[in-house]
Amino acid sequence: MPVDRDKLKQQAALRAVEFVEDSMIVGLGTGSTAYFVVEGLGARVAGGLKITGIPTSERTATQARSLGIPLATFAEHQHIDLTIDGADEVERGSLNLIKGLGGALLREKIVANASRRLVIVVDQEKLVDRLGDHTAVPVEVTQFGWQATAARLKELSAEPVLRHAHEDHPFITDGGNYTLDCRFPRIDDPRRLENAINAIVGVVDCGLFIGRASAVVVAASDGIHVMNAL
Ligand code: 5RP
């Protein structure tokens, strides 16, 4: 029988929502898995849970507002107790991540960086032995000079492809930037690669999240598994 990925995502999301406690400042991720997290949080808020959310995208902010989740910005809170977000790849063992196929990597990284705990929610298809096995690394770049930035990325052996929203219309992030999806032949040292990418002028940030996840909740056909960072 084919696996219902949405059902798995929802199961993992609801498990992660159990980590949220009264009066927490909670980072709200972006994507189809984070959607179920926000939905689950909305149900708990309707039941009396008191939290303040900091969303990682306009999309998530709209969903959270529609569910009555109180929102704030970094103007009010510079520290977040717990962020729950999705990912595109999770490396088994290290819990290093690739994020950003959903287009929100910069805000997601800022929110993750401000968080005491980052809990990632995925279905089993997202687990890989080596980062880059399945997906490209999204790199957010300024619109100005993006072709020159792409050329510098090629010098790191990337094959950058400008992401499009529609034919002839590049995808524009909430921050007003472009995204270059970069395939790498093999990623042996993701931390070094993250530093090298982020050192290129014109790069705003990249979707390598190294050493940031505190735990990963994985929904598999045999149940929910929680993997904790060492
Ligand atoms: C958005 C992200 C998402 O967390 C990632 O793309 C996973 O999305 P989904 O849950 O829809 O597979 O990084 O920028």
Which features would summarize this protein structure in a list?
Alpha-Beta Plaits; 6-stranded mixed beta sheet; binds ribulose-5-phosphate; Rossmann fold; alpha/beta; 4-stranded mixed beta sheet; 28% helix; 16 strands
Instruction: Give every kind of bound small molecule, once each.
Output: ribulose-5-phosphate
User: What profile does the largest beta sheet have?
Assistant: 6 strands, mixed
Estimated share of beta-strand residues? 25-35%
Order of helices and strands: HEHEHEEEHEEEHEEEEHEEEE
Structural class: alpha/beta
- In CATH, the architecture of the largest domain is 3-Layer(aba) Sandwich
Number of strands: 16
User: What is the averaged pLDDT score?
Assistant: 96
CATH topology of the largest domain: Rossmann fold
Q: Gyration radius, to the nearest Å?
A: 17 Å
How would the global form be characterised? globular
Number of helices: 6
Query: How many domains?
Result: 2
